[in-house]
Design a protein that fits this description.
Layout: E1 7-13, E2 16-21, E3 24-29, E4 40-44, E5 47-52, H1 54-80, H2 86-98, E6 101-111, H3 137-150, E7 155-160, H4 168-181, E8 185-189, H5 195-204, E9 208-210, H6 218-224, H7 230-243, E10 246-249, E11 252-253, H8 260-272, E12 277-278, E13 281-282, H9 299-312, E14 317-320, H10 322-327, H11 332-338, E15 343-347, H12 351-354, H13 370-383, E16 387-388
Parallel strand pairs: 6-7, 6-15, 6-16, 7-8, 8-9, 9-10, 10-12, 11-13, 12-14, 14-15
Antiparallel strand pairs: 1-2, 1-4, 2-3, 4-5
Bound molecules: S-adenosyl-L-homocysteine.
S-adenosyl-L-homocysteine (SAH) binds next to loops.
């Protein structure tokens, strides 16, 4: 199982390196490792995240050699026919800008405690039916070790409700220890924290932040996130980007009162915030929330939004979210990837907690062990010619 191809260093200029992947040259930033020309590395999101020995790199490259070009060929063939609809046009554009690379992140949901009363979310404190959990620092580190060192993930998202038990000090300990034992691209998805905390976490080695603005419409925002301000969330996202974080952001599709125009503004705002990864998905009602009776949007409207986002921001990475997969567990992932998306996430939260991170019920993939899910996803990716890799900037 392999979500990245090792690259060989051709050039080093200060922190910037040029890497070769089967003849393709890519750039990456190196901030963590002592590297020399000819070394092999893994890059994710434009950052060097691991150094690999030559022997290991060569054996992985050997297994990739033929497959790499075969997959490219399948993808090119699928994407090069004359587009007959919006999805095919978006897919052709995805292929033109990104080739066949598909970025895979693992996600560890480490706490379902939350102080925020978002009307759409099952983690809201008023939901007394939910069994709450909080992973200890050691549990988080063990889950990370397994994901990085056994399952081979090179990029992990750490997500939780807004839970102050994870103080700045505890979060720093977690990031520092992950960097020591399980190097990977660390994405934080921990909600609104003081910027100073995010600064320290960056300096400790976190390089990416997943923070959706949820909706660009301030009126809807104040209705669905009482007591929160859209302006301050957007301000935080901007400051994180200035600090150097890779931004993953986006919105929920199908919130009450949301119009077509709102969704176009959502796409524009995601772009103007400099998000490298677009993360948006359908609203899915949770029975224990005030929006229990509000309907989920149709699969087609989510696919249309993916295609529209791809057409307006061709260089973006666009995620197929778990919420989209939940709308059609058998087909949505493939349909999303064929409508312009090129990224996905695999849940690697320990089994005993996975079902409890219930932002909405019955999430796709939560009953399947990660090993099994990885295999079926790799099979799907091969069938549509995508390489599960992130070749960096
Ligand atoms: N506390 C973090 C993580 C929140 S949960 C934060 O504030 O960023 C991650 C995402 O799940 C949210 O940003 C929201 O967009 C999404 N979400 C929550 N409830 C949902 C629902 N019922 N349907 C679809 N998406 C939902």
């Amino acid at each position: 199982m392999c979500y990245a191809i090792p690259g060989k260093i051709l050039e080093i200029k200060d922190n910037n390196i040029t890497v070769d992947y089967f003849g393709e040259k890519r750039k990456a930033r190196n901030e963590f490792f002592a590297l020399s020309l000819g070394d092999y590395i893994y890059a994710q999101g434009g950052f060097v995240v691991q150094k690999v020995s030559e022997a290991e790199a060569l054996s992985i490259l050997e297994t990739w050699k033929e497959l790499f070009f075969k997959l490219q060929e399948i993808d090119e063939k699928l994407a090069s026919k004359k587009p007959t609809d919006l999805y095919e046009s978006a897919n052709a554009l995805r292929q033109k800008y990104h080739g066949n690379s598909c970025c895979i992140h693992g996600i560890i949901e480490f706490s379902n405690y939350c102080t925020s009363s978002c009307l759409y979310c099952g983690l809201r404190p008023d939901n007394k039916k939910l069994t709450r959990y909080r992973m200890s620092i050691n549990e988080i580190l063990a889950a990370t070790d397994y994901a990085v060192n056994k399952l081979n993930f090179k990029a992990l998202v750490f997500q939780s409700g807004e839970d102050a038990w994870y103080s700045e000090e505890r979060l720093l300990e977690i990031v520092n220890k992950i960097r020591e034992k399980s190097p990977c691209l660390i994405t934080l998805s921990i909600g609104e924290r003081p910027f100073a905390t995010y600064e320290k976490l960056y300096d400790a080695g976190a390089r990416s932040a997943l923070l959706r603005f949820e909706t660009s419409n301030p009126k809807i925002y104040s209705q669905v996130k009482p007591g929160h301000s859209l302006e301050s969330r957007i301000d935080l996202i901007k400051r994180l980007r200035q600090k150097g974080y890779i931004i993953m952001s986006g919105f929920i599709l199908g919130l009450p009162g949301q119009t077509k125009e709102d969704v176009l503004n959502d796409i524009k705002l995601t772009h103007s915030l400099g998000a490298e990864m677009f993360s948006f998905g359908p609203f899915i009602p949770h029975p224990e929330t005030p929006l229990a009776a509000h309907p989920r949007p149709a699969l087609e409207s989510v696919l249309n939004t993916i295609a529209e986002a791809r057409m307006s921001v061709p260089q973006a990475r666009i995620l197929v979210t778990t919420a989209l997969e939940t709308l059609d567990k058998d087909n949505a992932l493939r349909l999303g990837l064929m409508a312009g998306a090129n990224s996905l996430m695999i849940n690697v939260t320990p089994e005993k907690y996975r079902r409890l991170y219930e932002i909405y019920p019955d999430r796709a993939g939560i009953d399947t062990p990660p090993e099994k899910r990885i295999n079926s996803i790799l099979q799907l990716l091969q069938s549509i010619g995508r390489a599960p890799t992130d070749l960096g900037a």
